[in-house]
Structures are given as C-alpha cells and as structure tokens.
Design brief:
The protein is mainly beta. It is 8% helix and 43% strand. The chain is built from two helices and 18 strands. The strands form four sheets. A seven-stranded antiparallel sheet has the order 1-2-3-4-5-9-8. It has a four-stranded antiparallel sheet with strand order 7-6-10-11, with helices on one face. The chain is globular and about 55 Å long. Keywords: Signal. This is Lipocalin-like domain-containing protein.
Length: 261
C-alpha cells in the first residue's frame, strides 16, 4: 500500500540534473496557471514537476527522489554568484548555473517560503529576475499527488458538477467535500482571513476539484490576518483542531475578505 507524504527537503540538495530531453513528458493536470507534468524514462516513471512562465521567466518546481528543487530560465556562467530573496528574506541555496538556466537546491525553510511567498527575487551574476509566487502552494500539492500516483492522470470530471468521491467523515459541522469542491480555476486573486475568536488556532483547507480536503500551510491565530494566494472559484474550509468546521465553505472571488468567529 502506498503511503502519502508531504515532501519537503530537510537540507540543501541538488539530487540530479534536469531530465534528458528524450524523456517522455505527459501532462498530469493543471493547478491554476501551473502545468503539472510527469516525466518517465522508457516505461518507468521518473518524477513530476510544475511549470509555468512568469513575466518571461520559465519556472519549474521539481520533486525528485523525495527532494524539491526549483529551476528558472535565468542563465549565466557556472562561476556566477547566486542569491535568492523571498519577501525581503534571504534564503540559502545551492545552485547550478548553466547557459540554459539556474537550478536551486533549497533548505526546508526556503521551500516553505516558495510555497507560501508572494515574490521571489533571483540574482545570477549581474542578472536579477523577479518571480511571482502566487499559486505555488496548490501547484506543489498537485505535484505531490502526481508523484503519489506515479504520473497517472486523474480521471476526467465535470468541475461544475463534481462526481461523488469516497472520503472519510469530514468532521462535525463540515459539508461533504464533494458538495463544496472547487470550480474551474478563474483569474488570480487573494483570500484574506481574520480569526476573531478564542486562543486556539485554526487550520485552513483547500477543497480540490475532486472534493478532497488538503491542508494549506496557513494556521489562523487569534486576532491575526492571513492572506492566501488563490484563484477565483476555489473553495476553502476552516477547521478547529478537533476536526470540526467553522461556518460554510469560503469561496475565493475578487480580493475576498472573511472574518472567522
């Protein structure tokens, strides 16, 4: 039986160079504007990654051998100094710079910052590229799904009328995930949440198009505001630590603001 894990590297690592151009590549799914791709060598599954172009820079989040690396089409020489700043915080990286692009091995904190951040600034020699990080959390989750399923794409579903899915009991006061599944991704937006309640923190979940509840890397602490990058039409649920839901599903729209009590 397969066991699902959330893959986050504990140390800087660059496990392998980019896959051979001859490797087979198949689309697994989309996560907003990110394309989730499965790569194989011959008949054997190799790894999954998320790809998209951001302001002229191609970016890939690669999950291989249980480690994350990030590749960006910022070229340079092997001797170039490389720096990575995410939301005004500098993160340690191990870099491989070529004439095709730069591959980054990240610490655990660095990968968490990529998942949760807003803007990355990558410096390679004299070149500086700014890379928007919206949608990276959802894209990383889909890469993990792709890896778990060894690149086998999900069955097609009608995103406007999601098919019922088998799921564990969602918890007291919670709707079935299939009844509040995310609709087709729309334009980029943000979900702003403020928890105006007791001292116990809450957990935010994204309800994917198949009705699965996937924990977001965002805890809601009392009197604190959390802003989550999202796409219009996505659904979210907020749970207490005992598994019970607080209120109905939250739908992301134009700069959506919610207060949880």
């Amino acid at each position: 039986m397969k066991t699902f894990r959330r893959f986050v590297p504990g140390a800087i690592a660059l496990p392998l160079l980019a896959a051979d151009p001859a490797a087979a590549q198949d689309r697994f799914d989309m996560a907003g504007t990110w394309e989730i791709v499965a790569l194989s060598e011959g008949d054997a599954f190799d790894h999954c990654e998320a790809r998209r172009e951001v302001d002229g820079t191609e970016v890939r989040m690669i999950l291989q051998d249980e480690s994350w690396t990030v590749w960006a089409s910022v070229s340079g020489a092997a001797t170039d100094a490389v720096s990575l700043d995410i939301d005004d915080t500098v993160y340690a990286v191990e870099a491989q710079v070529t004439s095709d692009g730069t591959r980054l091995g990240l610490t655990r904190d660095g990968m968490e910052a990529v998942r949760n951040g807003t803007l990355a600034t990558l410096g390679v020699g004299d070149t500086v590229a700014e890379i928007a990080l919206n949608g990276t959390a959802a894209a990383a989750l889909r890469v993990e799904d792709c890896t778990f399923n060894e690149g086998q794409p999900p069955e097609p579903v009608d995103l406007h009328t999601p098919a019922p899915v088998a799921e564990p009991a969602p918890g007291p006061g919670c709707p079935a995930g299939s009844s509040v599944a995310s609709a087709d991704d729309g334009g980029e937006t943000e979900l702003s949440l403020t928890y105006d309640g007791p001292e116990t923190p809450l957990q935010l979940y994204w309800v994917d198009p198949y009705g699965r509840l996937l924990p977001m890397p965002a805890l809601l602490n009392p009197k604190a505001q959390v802003v989550v990058p999202a796409y219009k039409g996505q659904s979210f649920l907020v749970k207490a630590l005992d598994g019970s839901c607080l209120g109905d599903a939250l739908l992301a729209g134009d700069q959506t603001v919610h207060v949880i009590r």
